[in-house]
């Protein structure tokens, strides 16, 4: 075969492959709408993976014309409120947009279709379960603070070490405030890693070596999905105290409060519920727990997989979860497409 014919065949094969991967025109009867469903792919791993999961199911299972669009909390919600686009944000954290979002719901511009994270997001101080099992009296942050010797600073063993957040993160302010509120200075060192990756590496190293570690973290995340950590009890979340703890200009002394759980919802433009009821019904069922989402992210972390590959792995391995969201016909189409 001549090189020219090889080139032609290669081009034809590539074209056919590309055509097969392109979204088909919406099947209005199966999808319930002929409108394009824009799904916001947020910048953090859990929201990005969820966007790809839902895009695959709606595209392959229901024949919808689906488009993923880059998003983030403030610009996505602002666009929804002003233009009705994107259609859906599968993991929208509303704590940062509380007032405009509530106003948008009141004015009929946006709707909440479900809780994306059914048991709420998690923030707090954690210790490994193997340490909690060895010291069953360590239930709360106050309990741990009394025992710096159990969590020695590798560079200064005479004191304990609390792993905080990288400089510039909001959690650096809150953790520093709690460090003061618990009067830890003098017996503990507050360690600020240079980056999120450095914090993750410190946690992973401690768990792999079965060493003690006291650290701030949040979920859903791959770290909490991969490692068995125990969240320490703190006094009930007080929004006013927390707001002061995270405001460098607050005149009040830091107070003891748990980190408030941020609501993460499936947010949508109001037209979705009216013009695409099948889509709205689908999204009303897709809530996952913190642990379930963290488990999804473990695959991406361990395999250096992107959001799309992480989504495909979830669809292939967790059929018993996602099949409850869809009709049997749609489930069969999704399985065939996989």
List descriptors:
single chain; 338 residues; alpha/beta; D-Maltodextrin-Binding Protein, domain 2; six-stranded mixed beta sheet; three-stranded antiparallel beta sheet; 17 helices; 17% strand; globular; disordered N terminus
Describe the structure.
By secondary structure, this protein is an alpha/beta fold. It has two domains: 31-120 and 262-337, D-Maltodextrin-Binding Protein, domain 2 (3-Layer(aba) Sandwich), CATH 3.40.190; 122-245, Glycine betaine-binding periplasmic protein, domain 2 (D-Maltodextrin-Binding Protein, domain 2), CATH 3.40.190. It is built from 17 helices and eleven strands. The protein has helices at 3-21, 28-31, 45-62, 73-83, 98-106, 129-134, 141-145, 170-181, 196-208, 222-226, 239-245, 270-275, 277-283, 290-303, 307-317, 319-322, 328-337; strands at residues 37-41, 66-70, 88-93, 110-115, 122-128, 152-153, 156-163, 188-191, 214-219, 229-231, 264-269. Strands 5, 6, 7, 8, 9 and 10 form a six-stranded mixed sheet that branches. α3 links the parallel β1 (37-41) and β2 (66-70).
């Amino acid at each position: 075969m001549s090189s020219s014919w090889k080139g032609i065949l290669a081009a034809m094969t590539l074209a056919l492959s590309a055509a097969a991967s392109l979204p088909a025109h919406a099947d209005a009867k199966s999808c319930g709408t002929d409108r394009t469903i824009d799904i916001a792919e947020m910048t953090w791993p859990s929201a990005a993976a969820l966007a790809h999961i839902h895009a695959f199911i709606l595209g392959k299972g229901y024949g919808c014309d689906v488009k993923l669009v880059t998003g983030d909390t403030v610009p996505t919600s602002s666009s929804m409120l002003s233009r009705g686009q994107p259609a859906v944000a599968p993991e929208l954290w509303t704590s940062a947009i509380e007032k405009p979002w509530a106003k948008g719901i009141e004015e009929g511009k946006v709707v909440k279709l479900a809780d994306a994270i059914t048991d709420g997001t998690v923030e707090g101080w954690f210790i490994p379960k193997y340490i909690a099992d060895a010291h069953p009296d360590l239930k709360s942050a106050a309990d741990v603070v009394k025992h710096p010797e159990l969590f020695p600073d590798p560079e200064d063993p005479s004191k304990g070490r609390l792993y905080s957040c990288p400089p510039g993160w909001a959690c650096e302010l809150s953790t520093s405030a709690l460090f003061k509120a618990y009067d830890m200075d003098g017996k503990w060192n507050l360690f600020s890693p240079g980056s999120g990756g450095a914090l993750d590496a410190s946690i992973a190293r401690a768990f792999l070596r079965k060493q003690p570690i006291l650290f701030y973290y949040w979920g859903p995340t791959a770290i909490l999905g991969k490692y068995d950590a125990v969240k320490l009890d703190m006094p009930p979340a007080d929004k006013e105290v927390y707001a002061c703890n995270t405001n460098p200009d607050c005149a009040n002394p830091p107070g003891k409060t748990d980190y408030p759980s941020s609501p993460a919802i499936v947010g949508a433009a109001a037209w979705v519920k009216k013009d695409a009821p099948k889509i709205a019904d689908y999204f009303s069922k897709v809530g996952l727990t913190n642990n379930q989402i963290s488990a999804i992210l473990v695959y991406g972390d361990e395999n250096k997989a992107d959001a799309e590959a992480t989504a495909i792995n979830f669809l292939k391995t967790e059929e018993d979860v996602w099949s409850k969201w869809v009709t049997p016909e749609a489930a069969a189409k999704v399985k065939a497409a996989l």
